[in-house]
Design goal:
By secondary structure, this protein is an all-alpha fold. Helices cover about 75% and strands about 0% of the residues.
Length: about 300
């Protein structure tokens, strides 16, 4: 049963990490409810299905193209959070089946986007959907390989932060304004931290195939300081939003309750611990911070709009 096809494909999809795509949709939808008192459940469900399908397709494509580049074959420090699924390397899935699955998942995401387009007649949503599809696929796919060019973390911040928060808000309100930018930036910074902390174990293999992640480009210690700076920035943005601009007061206060979790994550954030085999505490806490932080923002918007 351990290696049944269902279990294998569950591992390949990396289902537990779908929170990275669901959270920004929750935040954007909750913000729309708070700002405009609107909620269209069908559009919300379609948005979740669409972004999860694109996320799944990106995960699978990542495995395929990190196989063809040799990256995952060289990785000797695989963790539950990095190094790919290793299912191709273990002989449990063929490269061809993985590539086909990636295209199927991306096609489902594209089809969902077409349905949303037919319902909304919005070419703005179409543009966001195309950006998500192309960005997810070409994150590791040749010839673009965005994740190999020193901008991977920024791309992830856009695809799993600013764009889906803004898109979900627009999908509900049909309004283009500055309201979703601050929460979108916060979610982007949180997913940036998740990606960054997961890059440390992969750094030797990434360097060997010239994959220019932030950890490879900066080195371990500057990358750790980058993590600290971005994490601090999320709280600074919240405080400025509350005290200076008088916005996001309740959501911001709820987000500040994650501060103990952030302090705990920083406690385990050092180069020796991050590269130690079997030690994943900082990774777990960062993922939890993204989840709890996103939920707190969403809850704050919902309660302030009720």
């Amino acid at each position: 049963m351990k290696n049944s096809k269902l279990v294998i494909w569950f591992q390949e999809l990396r289902v537990p990490f779908f929170t990275a795509s669901v959270i920004p949709v929750l935040v954007g939808t909750a913000l729309a409810y708070s700002a405009a008192n609107v909620f269209h459940p069908v559009l919300f469900i379609l948005a979740v299905l669409g972004i999860v399908a694109l996320h799944a397709g990106a995960n699978i494509a990542n495995d395929y193209f990190d196989h063809t580049s040799g990256n995952d074959w060289l990785n000797k420090n695989v963790t539950p959070f990095s190094g790919g699924s290793q299912l191709i390397q273990q002989g449990l899935l063929s490269p061809k089946s993985v590539l086909i699955a990636a295209w199927i998942a991306l096609s489902i995401g594209g089809l969902t986007g077409i349905i949303i387009l037919l319902l909304t007649k919005s070419f703005f949503i179409l543009a966001l959907g195309i950006a998500g599809l192309l960005g997810g696929y070409f994150y590791t796919a040749s010839p673009v390989r965005l994740g190999y060019r020193g901008i991977g973390e920024l791309i992830i911040g856009l695809l799993f932060g600013v764009l889906p928060v803004y898109g979900s808000y627009y999908l509900q309100t049909r309004t283009i304004d500055f309201v979703p930018l601050v929460p979108g930036i916060i979610v982007a910074m949180l997913i940036f931290l998740v990606i960054l902390v997961n890059e440390f174990p992969d750094a030797p293999a990434d360097s060997a195939v010239n994959k220019k992640t932030l950890v490879v480009v900066l080195g371990d210690k500057p990358a750790v300081w980058s993590y600290r700076a971005v994490l601090l920035a999320t709280y600074c943005v919240i405080i400025v939003a509350i005290l200076i601009f008088k916005i996001m007061v309740f959501p911001g206060l709820l987000y500040l309750t994650t501060l103990p979790l952030a302090v705990l994550a920083l406690k385990f954030l050092n180069c020796d611990v991050l590269q130690k085999s079997g030690e994943h505490t900082a990774n777990k806490l960062t993922i939890l911070l993204h989840l709890v932080g996103g939920v707190m923002l969403s809850l704050g918007f919902l309660l302030s709009g009720s």
